Every structure is written in C-alpha cells, then in structure tokens.
Amino acid sequence: MANVAHTATSAPVVRRRSSFEKLMSNTSLWRGMLAIAVFLLLWEIGSRFDEWFGKEWTLPFIGLIPAPTAVFAAWLEILPKAGYWMSWLQSFKRVLSGFLVAMLIGIPFGLALAVNKYFRDLFFPPFEILRPIPPLAWVPASLIFWPTNEMSIAFVTFLGAFFTIVINVLGGARTIDVRYLRAAQSMGASQWDLFSKIILPGTLPSIFTGAAVGMGITWEVVLAAEMISGGGTQGGGGLGFFIWNSYMGGSLEQVVVGMISIGIAGYLSSSAIRWLGDRFMPWKRLF
Amino acid sequence: MTTASQTTETVNAGRRTTAPTGLALYWYRFQQSLSTPKPYLTVLGIGLWLFTYWLLCEGLRVDRFDKIPGPVAVAKDWFSPTPFQGVSIFTENYYNHIYVSCRRILIAFALATGIGVPLGLFMGWSQRVREYAFPILETLRPIPILAWVPLAILMFPGFEAPVIFLATLASLFVTTLNTMLGVQSIDESYFRAAGCLGSSNWDIFKNVVVPGALPFVFTGLQISIGVAWFSLVAAEMVSGDHGLGYLIVDSYMNNVTVPMVIGMITLGFVGWITSVLVRIVGNWLMQWHVKALALQGR
Amino acid sequence: MNQMTTNQKLHAAATSPQGTGTGRPLGGALSIRNVSKIYDPEGVNVCAVNDCSMEIVAGEVCMIVGPSGCGKTTLLNAIAGFHSITHGEILLDNQLLCGPGKPKASQGADRMVVFQNGALFPWRTLAENVAYGPIVQKKMTKAEAHEKAYHMLAEAGLGDFGDKYPGEVSSGMSRRAEIVRALINEPKVLLLDEPYRAMDALTKSIMHESLLETYDRTKVTIFFITHDLEEAIFLGDKVHIVTTRPCSLKKTVDVTIPRPRTYESLSSEAFRTLMEEVNEAVHEEAVKAFQAGERELA
Amino acid sequence: MQKATTEMKTASTGPAPAASEIDPHSIGKGHLELRNISKSYGEEWDLQQVIESMSLDIEPGKLTVIVGPSGCGKSTLVNLIAGFEKPDSGEILLDGKPVTGPAKDRMVVFQETALIPWQTTYENVVFGPKLRGDLKGKALEEEAKRLLVKVGLGEFMHKYPLQLSGGMQRRAELARAIINGPRIMIMDEPFRGLDAMSRGLMQEFFLRLFEENRRTNLFVTSEIDEAIFLADRLVVLSNRPASVRKVIDIKLPRPRHYTMLSSAQAYEYKRDAMAILHEEAMKSFRPSTANANFAKSYTTSGGH
User: Which of A207, A262, C136, C277 is most buried when burial is the number of CB atoms within 10 A of its CB?
Assistant: First the structure.
C-alpha cells in the first residue's frame, strides 16, 4: 500500500528482506506497543498525581484507581500463593462444565431444529420466548432451584452458552449451499449420508463460531454468578469471588489483578477454541 | 429448496389475480399457513412447554420444582389488582422498575453509540488511528464487564452512574468493533470512484465511509443492545437501586419468588422490544440495503 | 504525434453532435511510455508491468486484451492515479500525469474509471449517483445536477430507473448508469476495467451496443481492458494484445470495421478475418497464463 | 490423451469391472425425452411460468447444447431433469423410464463449483462410489487416481477445493461426475465465472474428454460461441417461459480445434443463433416495450 517511496528512477532490483527486517519495519506493531505504553503511562501518572502534588490534586475517576506499578507489585506478591491459583482452577472448572454441557445438548438440539421441520415448528417458539431473558436474570431462580451453589452456577453458565450455540448451529446448518446436498443426492446419498457427510461438517464452522461467542458469555456469567452468590459459602472461590473479596477487603490493587487475570483466562479459552477449530477444519485454514 | 415446496402448495385452486397489500397480505399469508402444520405445531409447542412447567411446579409439585412459582401463580399475581407478593401490572413500582431500567439502557446505549460509532468510523477509515487505538481496545475487551463492578462503584458516585457506566462499556466495545469492521468491509473501488469524481476527504467520509458502514453498524447495534441489557441486569443485581435486575435479586433476598419470575419475563419482553426498535430504525435508515435484500429473496 | 492528435480532435469535433453537455474540452490523448511497475509487498518483488508503451490518440477506443491477472489493471490504476509506477511516464494531452519525480498521478475528474464489479454507491439512487460528481466538484447546484442526471439517464434508456437503488436494478443497468455517472463529468478519458466481466453473452452484447451508441454520441477517448477478444474487436479502433505477467505489449491491431457497428458486424467477413489474425497470439498468452497458474499453485 | 484412452480400456477388463467409467450400460445409452413439461413459480397472483410445454429429445451419444437468454429458465430445466424438482405437468423419460428423483445415472456439474469444501479433491471424487459401495478399495483408489491424472490434477489430489484455481475446480468436478458412470452428464453453465481465456481452454479440455467416449451430454450455456464450439446439436430456447425455438445441427468436424470457431461455417451458425437470441433477449430488455417484464426477469436474476 504505502510504497510510494519508490522513485521512478530506481532500478527494478529484486531483493528479499529478512524476517528480522520485516519485524523491525512492522509499523503497526510498533504503533500498537507505543499506544499501550502511552496508555499505561497516562494511567500511572493519573493515579499517582495526588501522591506527587498533594491530596487536593486527586484527579476524577482515574485518580481513584491504583497505578499500574502498584498493581504489578500486588500481582508479584500474590503470584506464588496457592489461593490465587485455586481461584483460577475453580473458575475454569465452572466455565468448562457449563460450557461442555451446553455444547453436548446445544449442538444436537440445534441440528435437530435445522434438519426436521416439524421439530423446529414445535420447539423453536418456546426457545425463542426464553432466549431474550438475560442469563444472569436466571441466577436467583436457579439458586432457589438447585440444591448447591455450585450446581446453580453451572446451570446459569450452561444457559449463557446454550442459546448462542443453538442459534449458531441452526443458522449454520440452514445456510449450507443446497448444491452440496443435491450433488450428494445425485450420487446416491441416503438421508443419513446427507446428514453425516454434508450437514454435520458443513455446520462445523458455525459450531465453532457459536462456541467462541458462547465461551465469552460463559466467562461473564461465571464471574457474575460468583460475585452474586458470594461464591465462598460452599468452598466456592473462583476469580469472581477473588475480585469481590479483594474489593470488600479494600485491596484495589488485587481487584485489578483479578480483572487482568480473568481477562487472560478469557483470552486463553477463546484461543483454545480457535486452535481446536483449526484442527477440526483443515479446509478453513488455507493459504 | 424450501421455497420450491412452499410455492407448489400455493399454486392450486381459485387463483387471485391481484396482489394483496399491507395487512391483507399478512392475513393472506396467515390463511395460507393454516393449511400447513406450522401454526398448529407452534401453538402445541408453546402449550406443551407451559403445561410441563405447570405440571412440574404446580400439578405434581415435584420436589425442588415446587419452590419455583408455577405459571398459574405467576399469572394470578401479575394480573391481580391486589398482588399477593407485591408486584403486578396494577402496582406503580412495577412500572417504576421498568422505567428505571429503560432509562439506564437508553442513556448507556446513546453514550455507547455516540462514542463508539465515530471512534469505529475513524478506526476503520484511518489506518493510523486503527494502529494506535485497536491494541488498547483489544487488551481491555477480554475483561468481563462484571469485573469492572468494583472499579465502577469506586470511580462513580451514587447508584446510577456505575450501572450506566458498566452497560455503556459493554456495548461500546461491540459497537466500536463492528463499526470498524464495517468501514473495512467497504469495497476499495467505492473510495476510488469517489476520488475520481473529485471528492474531498470530508466528502468521502460523509458519502462513502458513513453509509457504507451502516449495515455493519446496525448489526453491531443489535448485538450491542443485547449486551447492554446483559450487563445492566448484572450491574443492577450487584449494585443497584431499582430496575428490573434489582427487582429480581431483591425478591430473591426477600424470599418472594413470584415477582422474581415476573421480573424475568418482563426483562425478556422489554429486551426484545428494544432490539426490534433498533432493527426498525436500521431498516428505515437503509432503504437501499433493505430493497436490495428483498430482491434477492431474503 | 502532435499533429495527429490535433487532427483527431478536429475530426471528433466535426463528427460529434454533442448529445450531452456543450463545450466539453475535447482531448484525451494518452501516451504511455516505457512504464514498469514493481510491487514490493513483504519484500517479494513482483513485476506487474514491464516496459510497456502505447500511444492512444484522442477520441479513440483503445482495447487492451490479456489474460486475467496479467497486470492490465495495474496499468489502468496508474493512469487513474490509484497506484504509483516504478519506471517510465504517462502523459495526458502532453501533460505529465506521472513519471520521473512524480510516481503517482493525482486523481481527477478528467479520467473517469468504470470498475470491474461496478462501484455505483449502493446507498444512493441511480440519479443521486450520477449527480454526485458535479455536486462535490461544486460545478452545479444540487437541483441542476439532478436535472441533468435524469436527462442523461433518460438518454441512456434508464429514464424510469433514476429513483431506484443500484441493488434494485440488474447488473447491466447499473453498469450503464455507471458510465453515465462518468460521462456527466465530461472526462477526457473513460477508463473501463473489464466492466462486463460477470455478464452472460447476451447481456454483454446489449451492453456493447449501448456503449457504442454512447461513444458515437460523445466521442470520448476510451481505454478499455478486457480478456475477451471478440469484445475487443467489436468495440475497438485499436486492439493491443499484452503478454501475461509481467504485462508488456505483444501485438497491436487496427480495427477497420466501419462505425456505427451493430451486432451484425460480429458476423461480418472483416470481423472474422481479424479474429483469425489475432486468435493465435491471444491463445498463446492464455496457455502461458494457464501454465503459470498451475505452477504457482503446485 | 490417446494414451488415456487405452488405459481406460484395460481398466474395464481389470479386476473390478463393475460400474466404473466404461460401464457398458452407460456409454451409448442415455436417451432423454422431455414430453410437454411445464413449470411455474411464485404467488398465485404473480405466477411466473418458467417453462411452458417444452418437448425435447436428447439423443444418446451426442453433445446437445441448450442456449438461451439469461434467466429464461435453463437452470430450472436442469433441476427438473436432474430430479431435484418435479414438473407441474408433462414427463421426463430416461431410456424409456420416468425420472422420479436424483440418481447417479444423471450427474450434474453445477454452475460455479459444488465440490464439497471440507473434502479434499480425492475425497470428493471417491465420494459417490464410496457411498454406494459399488467400487471399493484398491479398484476405487486406482480409478479415482487415473481420472484425476487424466484431468490434470494428479498433483492436486490432496488439496482442498478452495486451494485450486477456478479451472481446476471445474476439472475436479468433471472427474467427480464421470466416476459415477452416468448415462447422461448435465452441465449447468459449468464454465460460468471463469474469465474468457481460461474458459476457452476449459472448453477445449472438455471437448477432448467428450470426444474420447461420446457419453451423452447435455450442456447448458448462455454463450453462443461456447455452444457452437461444443455442440452436435444446438437447442435455442425462447425467453421466459422457456420453450424450444429452434434446433440446429452443428456439422463442424470432430475433433474440434479453437480455430474452427472463426471458420465461415461457424459464423453461419452463429448468425442464425444470434438472430433468434437477440430477438428473444430484446423482448425482455427494451425498457420502453416491456418495462415490467424486464424489471422482473433482469433485476431478480440478472447476475446469476
């Protein structure tokens, strides 16, 4: 794009740049890093302003937040502690259990909706009625219904991912190019062949899209559920509880540590899904 | 494939020669659909679901289900002038909760759109702006909105501001990213054509960038309003005062279950209405898009 | 060379009763001299155009035929000012567009491009699209521009479709409207980049007639890129056959079939002889491009 | 190509003669008769008659090309013959037996490409025989590989369709159809979307394949040059509703060469066909004469 730099008189020399050179000249990378550095710097200055210039200089909003260096220090302090890592484990366990159940029920349900017209006419309307209710609105009801906190968190997590996955599977299966089905029919495919060889693999991309979105929602829900239900009563814990606890305990540095941790956790899980998607769909990662 | 089977069904018998318009068309489609199993199955499906719900909670009073209010109990209270558990369509506080939530959503959504759309437009249009702003956005985005609750409470005074802040933040990310994608999806040749025709940069922004990104912007806004509700409910539950999320969690705390269910249903309904409104506004603004899609049979 | 240009100008002025707009500055002689273009993405140098020279006199229909992906479009982009060139120079009416010291031509309304997949703004009606150029260039008021747009659309047989959005009309009609959008700016050169690529033969033949009719009316210089030999001979005064990547001139043929041409000219003896004369050269390049393509993928 | 022919013969006497390409039942058969078929779509107040009482005989062992204006109902015709849809009235017979649904005796090569994107080229080719189980194991593998080599895709066997160029995809699709041993091949504008030059090369390639064994072939196109270059018989359709306007026997010698297209004889055919087609196209095109009609047939189906 931006190679106007070529003067019209330069000879057409063929030269390949090394990968190191490419990295060094990758302006977008440098700009991104610069932007983040500036962001951190401003944050640092903003939150430490009152330390340097006295209490009357406390800036609004940002002045109340701990500085990045303080957060980093708090993180280093907490890093070797087992409790912190237990929170990670707890949250991951909850996310995974709810998510997996949602996949296990959601994918067949979505496929059934897509394949069978009668099934769809019968079950899709109630599904659509329930879908707009935000998953978190289910939290109190599920706390009442399920005998343990753990189960109610799992249930709400499941709901969060379930609706997204079903909608994606249904949409994906119904937009498969009719010519693939026709070609297979011409070659003598049975109904089962059509399902297993065309519809199922054809829906895979949507399944993974749904899973990625569902995973994001799952983290939100788990966190909220942990915070609302107070997490700890039955040996709960989790990153949401970690944040809430730190807040109650007045350690704002730890709150931010918790936020960053959960950001990393969410990022890791969606990367894992993308990686799995690449594995399962080699035809998708061409070129 | 489905269109083929549908059309063969409608071909026969006493043919109409003129196309019905407006409501008549809907009525005609409804009549046509009566000859297919679809409406019956729909009614049956919803009926079956309600019946199961009733059976589990009220009919058989299965263990644990009996703790959840059944459909009859909910309906009785909801439509009673003297509700047993305090909330019905005749009580003022019911509408107050709805009003408060809607006001918060409106403010948050307006803020997110007002900031997110221009930001996204510039990020999509200018590579430089994108290269600076995008990494920051991407770093903050994976942090769940709920994780911001303590900071929000700390930074903003009162009940109202933190809740609105959280809902705004959630939809801001969605709106900005979708708008940016929208601009990036605009075909290069539109920019070139506009350049050929002698447009200034501002002309290009006004006449190519903005309208070209609109379809994506509205897809983004559809998602964004859903996300806003999601976060609003969460925020109201954790740190609220009034609002539907607060109603739900407050009823739970006070051990009154019927208002809780009423709150859930109302929330679903209001959320659905707002997203329909966004779609209507989108279609109204994008006549060109709607007409083209209609001709493609979508 | 200079003399020839003037001759052509006189000729054009004498034979064209200006159907649209009066006092259009005639001209549009393009000189492409030893142009080379080397792309340098990721440090891999790709030579798209290599030492390509051609002279296009004012008022001529110049057809460039070559396999797809051979670098023809790069040449067009250089003329239009979308891309820079590495070597050589391009002049319009003896004025330097780009050359040593000025690698990239500035975009201007004297060279209008009609794009491969069409670039009518889908969010504006056909009339608004046509009126866009004069309005942003502040040559006309909005009302004047719209009036003229409707007038010119009517001339092109699109009178009833001025209020339709591009998505609502066929690809053939939108392509014709795009040419009208270009012509309203009274360009010196019309640059067409495989505009009829995706159309079937019949629509194409109708488009050809429409373009020829427009040309006979305006005598604008046309620089037309295609890979369809028949189209080239049918429309062109001169057919330049270019080699597969890197693009350079292989053969030039003068088409002597008299104008106005109709689809009957397609089956004339003269046409057939020309086809026979050039077919070999084109086929050879096609095979080369094909083999190169297979090699690249293997 | 000569060599490929001899290879084919040995394959047929090989260990698994079953239903491979040289199925004696498939070559020389495939007599398709359309009797008075009609088809319409749309709301009852806006019924679009797409095909109206069309009768047509497609003779075995010949390459019949159907050419007609864009949006005239050619694709609908293909869908009917292939059995994806049913005609409102009339019947379609293949070797005397009525067509009831899709089957392997009528293989369709679709517009653009319908190779299954999540299967490699090789998997696409063996898809049909594997499903039916009529060619197995080593025999299937050899047959598939032989066909892929023949269409020049030996090296690309294990690539996914999206990794192939447009021309390669069409050739892979040809191989996928041929391996099922159809009695009649139905080509629905198979080279549409390719640029004019690769299109020409694909036509030559396709001709070589056809001229080798003369499998009954129905080729649908909207390009007259393509039609004349390929056809034994050229069927010119009317504008919507489609019916047969004229059948022209193309007597250009075989094997054909691209230079024949600029022969006087070819131009004769072209003039004939063009005259009809142009007239038909104009019927729907001129906005002044048939505005509404035009808007319908060209706006909705213009591009595709």
Answer: A262
